[in-house]
Specification:
Radius of gyration: 22 Å
Structural class: alpha/beta
Helix content: 40-55%
Largest sheet: 6 strands, mixed
Distance between the termini: 34 Å
Number of strands: 10
Bound molecules: acetoacetyl-coenzyme A
Number of helices: 11
Shape: globular
Strand content: 15-25%
């Protein structure tokens, strides 16, 4: 997952080839009909699956019904040979303000544990086609986690990412502690999870780049170490020391 701090507008606006888009949208049956999301195919070739979270009064809080519909739409786009990539977005004000607190409020431990609450949310991260999150406004709690499940995040200027679960007396439950650490680094992730503070797109991007470099360096170091288990590494260095041409055996 990568944070790209760039206007999400290009992903959000409809293609100029409006008639084709409208035809594609009308003729398209990506599951549906849907109550909480808008679904259509966009692009001149109708090859972009477009899903917009559409619960404006609740700032796109991720209720069970919405997440079920999202799963159905993703299944439909995954099965659609015409679709090459999927865009997931919300509104200018909110990508999603988290799991639906009102739905969760009276859940018991037994219900959550026994029913493996939130397990089905994982569908976004198992889609084989690239999924791009176009984020503006609040991406909080489950909303931040949902964005991080996508392969790429395009963040608009008003985007705010946060894991404020601690302020509700709980912790992230849909991968936030794990993906945020990888996305922005342990230090900032710990700070966000322990305080509930939000970061904007610029912070997310800067931190993401730091981690990408750090991760890359760690991986590189391990691969470097692994070369010391090969005969060719020994031969190459020995040949240098003995001032002769190396004779590599691909071992
Ligand atoms: N669940 C349910 N309803 C929510 C919601 C949520 N996560 N977030 C916002 N809403 C509702 C509000 O209750 C309100 O509804 P009513 O008009 O019926 O009262 C409506 O959306 C508008 O919200 P506000 O009036 O609060 O709007 P605001 O602009 O003043 O504040 C906000 C916006 C800062 C995002 C604030 O709504 C907020 O803090 N929301 C909760 C964010 C949160 O804690 N998210 C984490 C949820 S837990 C989770 O996600 C667990 C997990 O890991 C999966």
């Amino acid at each position: 997952m990568a944070f790209l701090c760039r206007s999400a507008a290009s992903l959000l606006k409809s293609s100029r080839a409006a008639p084709a888009v409208v035809r594609a949208a009308r003729g398209y049956s990506a599951g549906g009909p849907y109550e909480y999301i808008l679904v259509e195919k966009r692009g001149e070739k109708s090859d972009v699956g477009f899903i917009q979270l559409n619960r404006p009064k609740a700032l796109n809080a991720l209720c069970d019904g919405l997440m079920r519909e999202l799963g159905e739409a993703l299944d439909a786009f995954e099965a659609d040979g015409e679709v090459g990539a999927i865009v997931l977005t919300g509104s200018e004000k909110a990508f999603a303000a988290g799991a639906d607190i009102k739905e969760m409020q009276n859940r018991t431990f037994q219900e959550c544990y026994g029913g493996n609450f939130l397990a089905h949310w994982n569908r976004v991260s198992t889609v084989k086609k690239p999924v791009i999150a176009a984020v503006n406004g609040f991406a909080l709690g489950g909303g931040c986690e949902l964005a991080m499940m996508c392969d790429i995040i395009y963040a608009g200027e008003k985007a705010q990412f946060g894991q404020p679960e601690i302020l509700l007396g709980t912790i992230p439950g849909a991968g936030g502690t794990q993906r945020l650490t990888r996305a922005v680094g342990k230090s900032l992730a710990m700070e966000m999870v322990l305080t509930g503070d939000r970061i904007n797109a610029q912070n997310a991007k800067q931190s993401a780049f730091e981690l990408t470099l750090a991760e890359g360096n760690r991986l590189e170091k391990r691969l470097f170490h692994a070369t010391f288990a090969t005969d060719d590494r020994k031969e190459g260095m020995t040949a240098f020391v003995e001032k002769r041409k190396a004779s590599f055996q691909d071992n």
